[in-house]
Amino acid sequence: MKTNIFIIAAALLLSACGDKKQTADDKTPSTIVNENTVILTAAQFRNAGIETGRLVQRAISGTLKLNGKIDVPPQNMISVSVPLGGYLKSTNLLSGMHVRKGETIAVIEDQQYIQLQQDYLTAVAKLSGLEKDYKRQKELNTSQAASDKVTQQAETDYRADRILVTTLAEKLRLAGIDPTRINERHIEKSVNIHSPIDGFVSKVNINIGKYVSPTEVLFELVNPTDIHLALKVFEKDLGKLQLGQKVVAYTNNNPNKKYDCKILLIGHDLSADRAADVHCHFETYDKALVPGTYMNAEVEIKNSVANMLPADAIVDFEGKSYVFKVAGDKTYEMVEVKSEQAQNGYSRVEVAQSDSTLFVTKGAYSLLMMLKNKSE
């Protein structure tokens, strides 16, 4: 009987000692190796429900959502100016108005146009006399009735005046005056400015009565037949796009109205925010599409294989995404990653790793709390 009592007492004593050891172990705090690495106790490991796994490769597909605005290529933006300057006599243009090619959009007046026509007509009249004199001197020189010097001077005068007539004629055409329509009875005091394209007025930079120099731009016109959609695409998404890929675009004001586009050009120059321009051509032109309008776009991404982890493996802290890598026994290192929400509870991640690297797939948030609360 005494022996049995001794055995029971010894067992109770060992049990009490074990409970004290377990309680002490439960109270042992986790160890913070550095701001990114934590070592858990056995109890913390159990309570956190840590599960680990490796990166898995899965085929993903989806829709890439982008935004941008309607743009016009430089060759479709026309600046209208007056080559010789002058005073604006009249115009009826307003921003947004439609103009037809060849339509008179402004009338310019200036005395220099009258003077230019006078000089041209005078040179034409003089040319006729010089030509006759040159032919006469040439005939006289043939019969030795006139010297070579006189004949050569007559030829020089004739050719010089012919050059002057040609030059003044081109200046008149440049100013918008047809040389064949003017004569000593008809001289035009103003010139008409014609629209070079069918399009819309983008800007009106002048008012009636103002003098404009040849370097000033009176109007800016837009040819909308080749407008395109310029989208901003971040560096990480550029590889998902290719020339000819279909794009569906829509405006914020009318999201139900869809516009079919195709990718025409993918830019290779990255801006400060690591984005490039992708230009898309509208399949069908719509007059409602005004340059400068902001639009949203969706691109169907083909299936591709990517490294993925369960969504629970990724935690966000101070605007960045992280995962926890197994660095040893109950030891975990927080590593920054680039992540992208994918499908079926898995996220695509970009992180340096080997085939044997283990990541925390469950309990990552608990590790983040332990690590950052202790760090603070």
From TrEMBL:
Keywords: Transport. It comes from the Bacteria. Residues 78-221 form the CzcB-like barrel-sandwich hybrid domain. Pfam families: BSH_CzcB. The keyword Transmembrane does not apply. Belongs to the membrane fusion protein (MFP) (TC 8.A.1) family. This is Efflux RND transporter periplasmic adaptor subunit. It comes from Mucilaginibacter ximonensis.
